[in-house]
Design goal:
Layout: H1 2-11, E1 15-19, H2 26-33, E2 58-64, E3 67-73, H3 88-103, E4 110-116, H4 122-135, E5 142-147, H5 157-168, E6 175-178, E7 186-187, E8 192-193, H6 196-213, H7 226-237, H8 245-258, H9 267-292
Parallel strand pairs: 1-3, 1-4, 4-5, 5-6
Antiparallel strand pairs: 2-3, 7-8
């Protein structure tokens, strides 16, 4: 019974979803948000392994400034196979989490895009575009935490100097934090990690990102069948007439996520189109499974 009440209370907390490339520091940022919380609360696993460490979305209740938030650690998006941008499985999981929070929870109150500095890569840009612009349609507040900035002379200057590079890529954020998300290797003489000082200074910065930008009302992705309709519409009208701007835009990001746009000039390209269609189909099936089971928990 007590567990039931606890779960009910947790379900009402604002959801904060972290996303970004594999190894950019998402789980490390989650642990920063848990700083100051009861030490018995489980921390997120962090690893320097090349293949990725977090394989499913997992939530943590973080108390920040006297208020509780449900913080979601997610699987890293990566360079997928065959030139696709998002690793299909990771992207699928991320979309399913948003769907789950929309249909079974109280929506998403804040997205945190975690990026490893100091360079903004094409992959960062595409992950952002596909997920935020494409899937979330820019409708939810978003902030950025740039990790790996421990060697900057004046750490916060990094954003001042680099914001224009994001603007140029049309990556706009409600807030930003320049941080290091690790205290680094233990240094005997210092008696702590080599980055301990800058790490400690970074913790309140990421916590402020949440307290200052988390929306009271969670955003819900309501158009559950939009993607299916867009794809069906495009495939039906494809080659017969030019798609309208809305369809073309959605097509653009699904193409970026799942593979190149097909041309009918060679057999090889048709194979690619078929592979891509199968990947999209797979995603749609799993998303609609999720929705059909959402029932009255909405
Ligand atoms: N130098 C440096 N290393 C960092 C920073 N943040 C995280 N790391 C290290 O990067 C590695 C990956 O960190 P994680 O927090 O596991 O990254 P992640 O994004 O959760 O990774 P996946 O779950 O695999 O996608 C670990 O060895 C961290 O200690 C940072 O700001 N600077
Ligand atoms: Mg992780």
């Amino acid at each position: 019974m007590v567990f039931g009440h606890k779960r009910e209370a947790e379900a009402k907390l604002p959801n904060v979803v972290l996303f970004g490339s594999t190894g950019c520091g998402k789980s490390s940022v989650v642990n920063m948000l848990l700083d100051g919380n009861d030490s018995s609360v489980a921390r997120a696993n962090v690893s320097s392994r090349a293949i990725g460490c977090t394989f499913e979305s997992k939530s943590y209740v973080a108390e920040i400034g006297g208020k509780n938030y449900k913080v979601w650690d997610t699987t890293g998006l990566n360079e997928g196979d065959e030139g696709m941008v998002a690793n299909t499985e990771a992207f699928k999981q991320l979309c399913r989490l948003i769907k789950h929070l929309s249909y079974k929870g109280n929506g998403v109150s804040l997205l945190v895009f975690v990026m490893r500095g100091p360079r903004v890569t094409e992959n960062n840009e595409k992950n952002f575009e596909v997920f935020f612009d494409g899937f979330c349609k820019k409708e939810v507040p978003i902030v950025i935490a740039v990790t790996g900035l421990e060697n900057e002379e004046v750490i916060d200057q990094w954003w001042v100097d680099n914001k224009s590079a994001f603007d140029k890529r049309q990556m706009y954020f409600n807030g930003s934090a320049c941080i290091t998300a690790t205290s680094g290797n233990f240094h005997k003489a210092l008696g702590c990690g080599v980055h301990e000082h800058v790490y400690r200074q970074s913790i309140p910065k990421v916590q402020r990102l949440i307290t200052e930008h988390c929306a009271e009302q969670g955003w819900k992705k309501v158009d559950k069948f939009t993607i299916v309709l867009i794809l069906a519409h495009y495939q039906l009208t494809h080659d017969k007439k030019k798609p309208n701007a809305w369809v073309a835009r959605c097509w653009k990001w699904t193409t970026k996520a799942f593979g190149p746009k097909p041309t009918h000039s060679s057999t090889g390209a048709e194979m690619t189109a078929r592979d891509r269609a199968a990947a999209i189909n797979d995603i749609l099936i799993s998303l609609s499974d999720d929705e059909s089971s959402s029932g009255d928990e909405k």
